[in-house]
Each structure stands twice: as structure tokens, then as C-alpha cells.
Design brief:
- The protein has about 525 residues and is of the alpha/beta class.
- It contains 19 helices and 14 strands.
- The strands form three sheets. Strands 12-6-4-3-2-1-14-13 form an eight-stranded parallel beta sheet, with helices on both faces. Strands 5-7-11 form a three-stranded mixed beta sheet, with no helix packed on it.
- The radius of gyration is 28 Å and the shape is globular.
- The relative contact order is 0.10.
- The mean pLDDT is about 90.
- Keywords: Lyase.
- GO terms for molecular function: isocitrate lyase activity.
- This is Isocitrate lyase.
Length: about 525
């Protein structure tokens, strides 16, 4: 609906009520346009369609991959999307990622926690709602500035500018984008997963990521001690999430099935086998077992039957069972195929390093069964990207017969190698990693889980060193405020960013000339006027 149509519609509603003479149709229209999404479900339906369209575009051309950064606060997500619109003029194929790790580390009432699902489960849904509240406020702020510019153009009689602004309002692109939200291992059984998924979706999430670890043994994907569950247990949770989407009318909602099997050598359960060769039997086939006979049984031993033989799975003092070493990749491939065949839309394979050959090798095997399989991939800060890629270049050059005698493979992180041919080649591979891996390894979505955690720490360290050191106030002025002004960072007008001008507009709608507005001549934000 266009701006003028929205005004007309509001005018009709006002006209039916004779006592509403103080309500202006154009003001109502502006408020409606500034609040395009009335509920989280509206957001979930809108963003699910975007993701589905983006997946189809990627299938047609892998150059159309998507990206996101993890955000731990609504303000961080808002500033990210404002920046994207400023620099690229569009939010197309740029999403938000909500990391369970950052919720645990930064948003729990218990204080900082490790990524082990110990934080309050509803804090994740609350962050989804917070992120979208801030994104909607970014819309309201930007549209409010356009409305003010429209009023100015009308007042000065600039009809061409007024028409341009009305067109810009009609074609306005929202800051609201898809969010991929981490539900960990579901925070309990399938019913708990369903209940929490509902909260996620009601808050606006169109895409939920769930992993195949045991809920009460959950570990960060980049830590040791991970324990997986049999496929049927995981598929029950995938179905629970799908039911939540469909119950709430978000039929296009997406599920990302994450497997931690590459780095998980343990399982808590032996899967229940109904018939030879079924999915449970395949899961159990990876167990580290030894053949035994009745005379070798120990008190309390657990046995399974395999091909007519008695087998004793290796059980640890923790009462966990161990998989055979070297089976991680095969288990990953089976996990992925099974998930896609049972309702998942996208895959997440948690790897120990960013290596296109390793990722692509697994994806190629998966695509032999599911040709359009696609990954969401964690470009993780847990990887030492510099060292990993320098070592990859070193190994490739050595295998090709290049002379690498001037390089010490174990010291390649050193700044001494920054300007070398090897260092430059490694940086180029990092720069093109997302493009190349999307083409060669089936990665549809690239995310960095914890980037804003690290940028906050780095920028705060720099400011603290300078402000509390010899630069004093110049440390803030030179490296923060002056840069905000010169780089056009909207937040330099922090009153405006926090909604002061939106509030002034509302005061004028509500009270007319009697409104006591904050944006007058004595507002110090005027020092930053464009």
C-alpha cells in the first residue's frame, strides 16, 4: 500500500467517528508505516519468505550466498543493519545470527556462563524480541526523518523533491531481516523443544538451529566432551520444531540441523534397533566394540548383538559409550542425510578448522543422496584463521614442490610473515573463503558467531588505554567522536538514535502546538547537524 493510500485508508476510519476530530489521517498513516510489523509472527512469516527466495537464488547460482554476524544485544543488531543499508543501500542476503554462546556469556542472570545450556532458556527468545524491537525502531527513525524532509519540501514548495520523497517512502526497505536463532539442543526433551520453539517463533524467528548433542551434556561445538544422541531422538526434536512453525501459521519456517559428530566421540545411549540396517543399527555400527563370548562377561557388562556375534561396547566410567576413532566424518554425513530426509531445510556441520576441501568432501557425499543439500557454516572466531590459512598455503606449496625453506610452519602466526608471499596468499584465500566455499562446498549461509563480542572487547580496550592514559579526553574525541562525524556514523546523534525525534513527532500529533518538544534550539545534538 502506498503512502497516499495509507492516508486515505486512515481518513476513512477517522471519518466514521465524529468525536475523533483531533486525529490527523496523515499522522496515523505515518505511525502505521513506522510500525509495519505488528507482531513477531508477522516478522517470522515475512522473513521466512525471504529466506526461501534466497535459497532458491543460491540453488540457481552459488554466488548468491547469504551472510550474517552474531549480535548479543538489540542495539548491536540495529547498528549492524543501519551500517549495511548505509554502505550497500540494501539489506538483501544479509541476516542476523543469534548465538547461544553469546546469550550464555552475556545475557544470563547467573552471570557469564560457558556454552553448556545452563542459561535461562527464555532469555534466547527474549533476545529475538529485543533484536526486532531495535530493528523496527531503526525503521521508525529513518522513516521519521523522511517524513520531516517531506514536510520541509512541501513548505518550501519543492514539488519535485516531495514526489521523490513519497516514492522513497513507498519503496522503503525495512531493517527487519531473517534471524537464524540457536536453540542449542532444545533445552530438554522434544516437548520442551516444541514449547521453546514456539517462543522463538512468536518473537519473530523464521529459522531455528538445533544440534544433535545431549541436552544435559551440551558443550560448545569448539570444546571437547561433546556427546551425541541417536538419530530418532534428534528427529523427534526436528519434528517438534516443525509442529511449532505450522501451529503458528509460519509454514515456510526453516530448520537448521546441526551435527557435532565430527568432534564428538561419545554417545549417551545405544540406539534401539527394530530391524537390521535401520537408522538405529547404523548409529550403533559406529560404536567401539569388541567381540566377546559368554566366558568373558564381566559383572554389569552391556552387550549388543551384531551379525550373530556378541559385542561389548566400550563404556566409560561416565557411563557414556565411545565411538570408533576416525568415524566422525561418516557419522556427520549420515546425520545430515537423515536430517534432510526428515524435515530439516539446511545443515550445519561444526568443523575444527575452515578447510574448503574437508567441508566440500562431506557435502559432495551428502549431495549424492540429497542433491540440493546446503550448509549454514560458522566462520568461527574459535579458528585461528591466520595460522590455519598460512599452514594450508605452506602445505600446498610444499606438495607442489615450492621452496618453503624460508618459512617455519610452527611460527607462521608471527608478524614477520605478514608481508611475505605466503602471508599475502593466505590473506587472499581468507578474503575469498566465503565466495569459494559457497561455490565448492555448498555453503548457502556464512555467519560469524561471536564477532561483536570480540569487537566490543577490542574497542573498549583501545579506549580505556588512551582515555585513562596520556591522551585523556583526546582518546575519546580523536578515535571515537571525530571518527563518527567523519565517517557519517548516525549514532553520533545519540538522542536521535534513541528515539528523541520520534517522541517529538508523537507529542506534536497528540498535543499540537502545545507540545513540549526536546529538539529545539538548545538541544546539544544540533552541534552535529549535517
Amino acid at each position: 500500500m502506498t503512502y497516499q493510500q495509507t492516508i486515505t485508508e486512515a481518513g476513512r476510519a477517522i471519518g466514521h467517528e465524529p468525536t475523533w476530530h483531533g486525529i490527523e489521517a496523515e499522522s496515523v498513516a505515518r505511525m502505521r508505516l513506522q510500525n509495519r510489523f505488528r507482531t513477531g509472527l508477522d516478522i517470522a512469516r515475512y522473513t521466512a519468505r525471504i529466506m526461501r527466495e534466497d535459497m532458491a537464488a543460491y540453488d540457481a547460482d552459488p554466488a548468491h550466498y547469504t551472510q550474517s554476524l552474531g549480535c548479543w544485544h538489540g542495539f548491536i543488531g540495529q547498528q549492524k543493519m543501519i551500517s549495511i543499508k548505509k554502505h550497500f543501500a540494501s539489506t538483501k542476503r544479509r541476516y542476523l545470527y543469534l548465538s547461544g554462546w553469546m546469550v550464555a556469556a552475556l545475557r544470563s542472570e547467573f552471570g557469564p556462563l560457558p556454552d553448556q545450556s545452563m542459561h535461562e532458556k527464555t532469555s534466547v527468545a527474549a533476545l529475538i524480541e529485543e533484536l526486532y524491537t531495535f530493528l523496527k525502531q531503526a525503521d521508525a527513525r529513518e522513516l521519521g526523518m523522511m517524513f520531516r524532509a517531506l514536510d520541509k519540501a512541501r513548505a518550501t514548495g519543492d514539488e519535485m523533491e516531495a514526489k521523490r520523497l513519497e516514492h522513497a517512502i513507498d519503496t522503503y526497505e525495512t531493517h527487519v531481516v531473517p534471524i537464524i536463532a540457536d536453540i542449542d539442543a532444545g533445552f530438554g526433551n522434544a516437548e520442551a523443544t516444541y514449547l521453546l520453539a514456539r517462543k522463538f517463533i512468536e518473537a519473530g524467528a523464521c529459522c531455528i538451529q538445533i544440534e544433535n548433542q545431549v541436552s544435559d551434556e551440551k558443550q560448545c561445538g569448539h570444546q571437547d566432551g561433546k556427546v551425541t544422541v541417536p538419530h530418532e531422538d534428534f528427529l523427534a526434536k526436528i519434528r517438534a520444531v516443525r509442529y511449532a512453525f505450522m501451529e503458528l501459521g509460519v509454514d515456510e519456517g526453516l530448520i537448521v540441523a546441526r551435527t557435532d559428530s565430527l568432534g564428538a566421540g561419545l554417545t549417551k545411549q545405544i540406539a534401539y534397533v527394530r530391524q537390521p540396517g535401520d537408522i538405529a543399527d547404523q548409529y550403533n555400527s559406529f560404536l567401539d566394540c569388541e567381540e566377546v563370548d559368554a566366558s568373558q562377561l564381566g559383572h554389569g557388562d552391556v552387550l549388543i548383538s551384531r551379525d550373530g556375534k556378541l559385542m561389548r561396547p566400550r563404556r566409560l566410567p561416565s557411563n557414556l559409550y565411545q565411538f570408533r576413532p576416525g568415524t566422525g566424518e561418516d557419522r556427520c554425513v549420515l546425520d545430515c542425510i537423515t536430517a534432510l530426509q526428515n524435515g530439516a531445510d539446511l545443515l550445519w556441520i561444526e568443523t575444527e578448522k575452515p578447510h574448503i576441501g574437508q567441508i566440500g568432501g562431506m557435502v559432495n557425499r551428502i549431495r549424492e543422496v540429497v542433491p540440493n543439500a546446503k550448509l549454514v557454516y560458522n566462520n568461527s572466531p574459535s579458528f585461528n584463521w591466520t595460522l590455519n590459512f598460512r599452514q594450508q598455503v605452506y602445505d600446498a606449496w610444499k606438495a607442489e614442490g615450492h621452496d618453503v625453506s624460508e618459512y617455519d610452519r610452527d611460527r607462521l602466526m608471527s608478524a614477520d610473515y605478514d608481508g611475505t608471499d605466503l602471508g599475502i596468499e593466505a590473506d587472499e584465500r581468507i578474503r575469498h573463503f566465503q565466495r569459494d566455499s559457497s561455490r565448492e562446498a555448498g555453503i548457502f549461509h556464512h555467519l560469524i558467531t561471536l564477532p561483536t563480542y570480540h569487537t566490543t572487547a577490542l574497542s573498549t580496550d583501545n579506549l580505556a588505554r588512551e582515555y585513562f592514559g596520556g591522551l585523556g579526553m583526546l582518546g575519546y574525541v580523536k578515535h571515537v567522536q571525530r571518527q563518527e562525524i567523519r565517517q557519517g556514523i548516525a549514532c553520533v546523534k545519540h538522542q536521535n538514535m534513541a528515539g528523541s525525534d520520534i517522541g517529538d513527532d508523537h507529542k506534536e500529533y497528540f498535543a499540537g502546538e502545545a507540545a513540549l518538544k526536546a529538539g529545539g534550539a538548545h538541544n546539544t545534538m544540533n552541534q552535529f547537524a549535517a
